[in-house]
Amino acid sequence: MQDSVPVAIVGAGIAGLTTALCLARQGLATDIFENADALNEVGAGLQLSPNASRILIELGLLPALEDVWSQPDSIALVDGRTLRPLAEVPAGANARSRWAAPYGVLHRASLQKILLDAVQSEPCCRLHLGRRVEGDPVASVAAATGRRPTVVVGADGIWSQVRAAIPGAGAVRFSGNIAWRLLLPRAEASACLSPNRVTAFLGPEAHLVAYPLRETDGFNLVAIIGGKPTETAWIGQDSEERRREFVAAFEDWHRDLRSMIENAAAATYWPLCVVDDGAWHNWRDIVLIGDAAHAMTPFAAQGAAMAIEDASELARCLAAFPDAPAAFARYEHARRARIARVRKRAAFNRFAYHARGPVRTARNIVLALKGPEALAADLDWLYGYGAFGHKRG
Questions:
Q1: What fold does the segment set 7-71+102-171+275-353 form as a domain?
Q2: What is the pLDDT of residue 232?
Q3: Active site residue 211
Q4: Higher pLDDT pick, 390 / 301
Q5: Pick the catalytic residue: 103, 211, 269, 385?
């Protein structure tokens, strides 16, 4: 698609900024519109698996990433009640050799800053902060810039305003799970938290993921439990009632983990919502990426990675095809099956991580029999995307 009118991107989060950089590498200019007056990323830590880090490295961002991220030696599954190791997938140097890209962990704000700095240094990208795109996105962008965009990319997250302009788009639905996010100083961390690995502690109807953050000299903890949605279905500050629900979900866990949860000075809870299957574009001039199109539960730790993959694929399609509808069709063809498979893996992980009774026992036996090499091979389709002949799309 060759046009002198910049592509308009709504949303300056990870999805939107990555899309702008990918389009710039294809020689396409962008106007990026962000409702906020300043970019202050919420949330805490982020896992960047090789399928995502590979794309960021292609964008020239490796030196900036190396300044802030950690590359864990392994990803471990551990019984949350006994602290008995269940399984371990090699990462570190093994990730780089097996999947041709690193597995890194960092703070979301760090990645957002890296992307923002790159966008602000890119002549093809223009960022408009404090600019709300409402109603008809095409008309709204045209009013702001004085020219009608040929393409509007909705990268505005799960509560996307752009999605409302696409007939048949998926609806937002509460998943039935709540994520609690905690940042723990290293001095307050139990010895069961390793500075060299990502650890997923598993238990009945709950699990807890912990990994180091260099930027805070501590650990990021994400605990996921069943729960009720809040009135706003959005991020909430800790409260006495919510904290009781949180602590109760881990009452039978190992005392070291339970103590960290009970004594955490501050925590936020995040009702986990998804976007059901639906249309991703209007066959004319509006297309969705990332959470705006297909927000999923985090049980496979692939939310940000799928947005980064979307950005790369959409940029290639817009550069390769002469008109937007053809580009949208190719983008959707490339991404639908991939997203469906990742959703299926996330659903399986939820079942396996939160298992109880005989299912929990069977899970532990299977994990013990498989071993590290077989578990890594099970992830080749996911982490090897774009490398060694693993075709993107």
A1: FAD/NAD(P)-binding domain (3.50.50)
A2: 52
A3: yes
A4: 301
A5: 211
